Amino acid sequence: MGKTKKYCYGICLLSSIVINILFSINLYLGGGGGALQRGEKNLEIVYRPSLTWTEKAAAEAEAVAAISCSGHGRAYLDSLISDGQTVCECYTCYGGIDCSEFSPGCSADADSGDPIFLEPFWMQKAEDSAIVVSGWHRMSYSYAGYTSMSTMSLEVEKYIHKIHSIVGNAITEGRYLVFGIGSSQLLSAAVYALSSQNSSSPSNVVATIPYYPMYEAQTLFFNSEDFEFEGDTNSWKLNNATNNMDVIEFVTSPNNPDGELKTSVIGGKTIYDHAYFWPHFTPIPAPSDHDFMIFTLSKLTGHAGARFGWAVIKDKDVYEKVSTYIQVADLGISKDTQLRVLKLLKVAVEDDGKQLFKFAYDKMRQRWDRLTSVFSKSTRFSIQKRDPLHCNFFNETRLPSPAYAWVKCEREEEDDCHAVLEAGKIIGRTGSTYKAKDRYVRLSLIKSQDDFDLLMLRLTELVSLENEFLSYKQNKNVRNAREAGMTNSTPPKHPIHYGTRNRT
Ligand SMILES: Cc1ncc(COP(=O)(O)O)c(C=O)c1O
């Protein structure tokens, strides 16, 4: 009897322990109404095994991402809906309901600097880079709870410092940061902040040819009595050698369109536009440490659509003027954008940036390898020379792999290179867009793989035509020598005919 009693007590004790353990587990993982819950003691986020209000949004996001558009287009949550179906947005030269129809005669579009080449990286990182935005996410104008009423996320600031310190491309510690709607907004904020207000004459804004056209466009558009655009640095220097005038110089390094690492020509007030100063486009020789530097997410992670850039500023007064500009222009940058930027930067710094920059550099190098192989067979066209440089990030000497090919038409008579290429079904951007000669054309190398593959196809066709013509000429010379000029063979179409059509 006594033995049976003891046995019963034992079972009761064991059951009580098991029940307590189950209760504790339930308390931490299953209790409460939210999908994510903070453990009371250590404030760590504890994930519940099942979701509640995010499930519908997650299912919608996955359903639209699963629409393949034949790999030649994309469907987004905010794409058009037709007959209850999300409409595929097809890449250039592809059409049809699922983007499967290729237009054979279509021109390769190498015009815009849309950085879609990084899309496959983000698809690989789908799980790490997705965000869920609640309906009540940061409805306020400012980040409450921070020391001062701020419109900039301190966490985003932290990750911007982190990415620069990992890459080693800029000194940002002890510097002021200001966020902008893309770096585009910060370009004009910079001119405003550096111009001499209350002076009798406007500040002279200059850049070195070939230069990014936005500098001139903005300076003219925002038409102020405090600054005016004066064009090329070298001409300005020649014409104003003796004048002690106020100058603001844009230094684009690496340069758009030709990829060169630039330094200041005039010296004085400078705005370093470092949009492309990342290891996938250029070796990083040393951290930049200028008074005013501008960077953009567009060319770092490829998210041009997010519209996010940042300025790194040394001087407090200049910083305050730039902050004022942003506050007056738009009361700060969208909190939704900042949330997304934070998530993307967290992925970018994973593994000390190795994954993102290795992917991006490999992609750019492969494109440059294919490009140089085609141009090496041409005497009619040439591209910019690239010199190897030590890259502190990859810790080896590498060739730059710029975002754009700066193509030159070498034949004397082909002084409208855009027209020459256009006739060969290639759309680039004219040299005169950058105030250079129209003998030059910029070709974008950072668009989608479809765009790049078609560009390679069209370039190969154009160059092989040139070689066909050359071998025809050589054969003709041999025949002439042999037969004293008697020939009735038809020459291939002279490449010179391309390009003449649009000249008038
Ligand atoms: C040199 C340079 N600076 C600035 C920008 C603007 O970039 P975003 O406004 O997307 O940041 C670009 C865009 O192509 C650029 O090429």
UniProtKB/TrEMBL annotation:
CDD domains: AAT_like. The chain crosses the membrane at residues 7-29. GO terms for biological process: amino acid metabolic process. Residues 52-106 form the Alliinase EGF-like domain. Its cofactor is pyridoxal 5'-phosphate. Keywords: Aminotransferase, Membrane, Pyridoxal phosphate, Transferase, Transmembrane, Transmembrane helix. The keyword Membrane applies. GO terms for molecular function: carbon-sulfur lyase activity; transaminase activity. The keyword Transmembrane applies. Residues 494-504 have a biased composition (Basic residues). It comes from the Eukaryota. This is Alliinase C-terminal domain-containing protein. It comes from Lactuca saligna.
